[in-house]
Amino acid sequence: MNFSYSELIARYWSDQQVTINLLAFANIAGAMVLGLFVGYERSFNGRAAGMRTYGLVCMASCALIVLAGSPSQWYGGVMHGAVITPLVADPTRIIQGVVTGVGFLGAGVIMKDGFSISGLTTAASIWASSAIGILVGIGFYATAILVTLLSTFLMVWIMKLEHWLPARQAVMLCIRFRKGFSPQESTLKRIAKDRGYEILPNTLTIKYEADQQEWRYIAIAENKGQSVPISTLAEELRNFAGVDQFNISHSKT
């Protein structure tokens, strides 16, 4: 069946098409607002992924699900010269593609520096924002709002709860010793214990270059609040015999 240009234009701007587009606009705009809400916490704390990233992920996820919800209206209800009536899209396949694609985006914000890993919370929250967009797209508005509030609550208040609850501080050390100096692991363990730390098993790596040894390991505090602060550790390392250079930082694993 062939249609004239005027008939095709009338189909694209029919009352049904306009109604569906207005509903899609409302869903997509709502998803974007919820994404911005979640992303504000990351933006406020200076993370690489901020409000724009979350808004885009949430909005695009919603748009794809809305698209799958009205297949009979694609191309103005006309495809290859025939009116579309039996076409049925499978939203689950689109959801699967969205979740997989956003997973790759989240992996891009995860950074690894030695034993320290950062960006996991940001990656997880980006993935959650895609779920919010999907929920809005399929019409679960109350659930989408709940997930938005819970995601924000987890990122803002649970972090404060983590600082309040008993925990063991972990520090990562990279020590380069002077040429010809041979440190002993037992000595390092004793020094760490005297300062309230223990070296985690299987974290010690040793690099030998130009007659110098470089030791990397993670030490964890035995009791919260009773271990030597990291600034004091740095000051003491300056005066240790055999130490040429060192790098010490809080470890996020």
List keywords for this structure.
single chain, 253 residues, alpha+beta, Alpha-Beta Plaits, 2 domains, 5-stranded antiparallel β-sheet, two-stranded antiparallel ribbon, 8 helices, 9 strands, 53% helix
Task: Describe the main β-sheet briefly.
Answer: 5 strands, antiparallel
H/E topology pattern: HHHEEHEEHHEHEEEHE
Mean pLDDT: 79
SSE class: alpha+beta
User: How many individual β-strands?
Assistant: 9
Oligomer: single chain
The residue ranges in which pLDDT falls below 50 over 5 or more consecutive positions are: 80-86
Distance between the termini: 63 Å
Would you kindly provide a written description of the structure presented here, covering whatever features stand out?
The protein is elongated, with a radius of gyration of 28 Å. It has 253 residues and is an alpha+beta fold. Strands 5, 6, 7, 8 and 9 form a five-stranded antiparallel sheet that branches. A two-stranded antiparallel ribbon has the order 1-2. A two-stranded antiparallel ribbon has the order 3-4. Helices cover 53% and strands 17% of the residues. It folds into two domains: 5-164, no CATH class; 170-250, Alpha-Beta Plaits.
